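Objective 1b. Sequence-to-structure analysis of tRNA modification GTPase MnmE.
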Amino acid sequence: MMNVDTIAAISTAVGEGGIAIIRVSGPEAVSEAKKYFRSKSDIATADSHTVHYGHIVDPANGEAVEEILLTIMRGPRSFTAEDVVELSTHGGIVAVKRVLELLLKEGTIRIAEPGEFTKRAFLNGRIDLTQAEAVIDLIRSKSDRAFSVAMKQAEGALSRKVKTLRHELIELLAHIEVNIDYPEHDVTEMTSSFIRTRCQEACSVIDGLLKTAGEGKILREGIVTAIVGRPNVGKSSLLNALVQENKAIVTDIPGTTRDVIEEYISLGGIPLRLLDTAGIRETSDVVERIGVERSRTALEEADLILLVLNANEQMHEDDRLLIEQLKDRPVIILLNKTDLPVVIDEQELLAIASADSIVRLSVLQESGLDQLEKVISGMFFGGELESGDLTYVSNVRHITLLGHARQSLVDAVEATEAGIPIDIVQIDVRQAWEQLGEMIGDSVSESLLDQIFSQFCLGK
């Protein structure tokens, strides 16, 4: 699966900026860069992890293409564990594009595939698969807490636990093998008891990891949160207040929002994917009706629903219909416009609603938002995010494989209790060991690797 050619790609976001970086990795990275780099220093003999000032020059005409800083990182002390050269150009589309096109011109360097630098780091043994997958989580983090969780995984917190667990299982497999090879020295009852104990201990470790899966997945992907309600109750104003920016148009005219507006925020360290929906009501307006249908679709996809009601008026029939539709869903009712006289009948509301909580707020005065944050934290994290050295499991692939490994160990325990021969029990234990190995990439197919790394951007 390992390529030995030299690759290059832009590693910074395309657009205007202070600098842009082109990363080159492979056995010929330094010699290829030397063809175009003109400087007082000779990079062919330069030490690793040194920076050199100079110009990129087109050998065909001797014209200086760009003024750059060139960084050399010789393998295995680099991200890919290969020779790596990074060219820091002026920021901007034209400058970085001209340099990259020159590097690719002769065909001795090819453009990197998505995630190929990280893939090479994995294939060269610098990182395992859980660490490689954490790289994309670092890039996509929507909150400080999500970044911290991804950083721990990138540093190997999860893989260390999995490797320890696999080491204990391989010791158990070795014990079983000895008893199979020398049955005359085996006491079947003692061996079965030993297998049960070790498998149950392994299950406890896996249970501890899976316990964090719900919270980890939320930190990784965010809580899909739909803001719903009748037109003109303050949904778009709430979105703007949470985002701290005028993302949605706000007017006194009902039906202003015609489509679903999406925005990510971090609320007390919890990432929320906010969906501001069109006001849900019966309407003859064709465009508004499309917006209402999209709002209903967003409701189906949401992990959390913020139902906004106008506290300054009596409940409308549309409010009652919405409350009825949202029964058995995770709902927080927000009584907005409490800066005005409160007219809504809260006793009626409590009688018909099955909401997880009711929060009084005034979006205009930005009061009550702290209480909303506490309620959301309590719903999804039991009141507060875990602190300390807790390792979250956030990747669906990891969660699935941990679940399969746990089931294999449970099968092994049940087999010993049923008196099944230990050479058959061994199959379940080995299967658990292999499934944990697939997590960290000890046994993984090329198609799965392609699928994982295709999610990365080109320069990573």
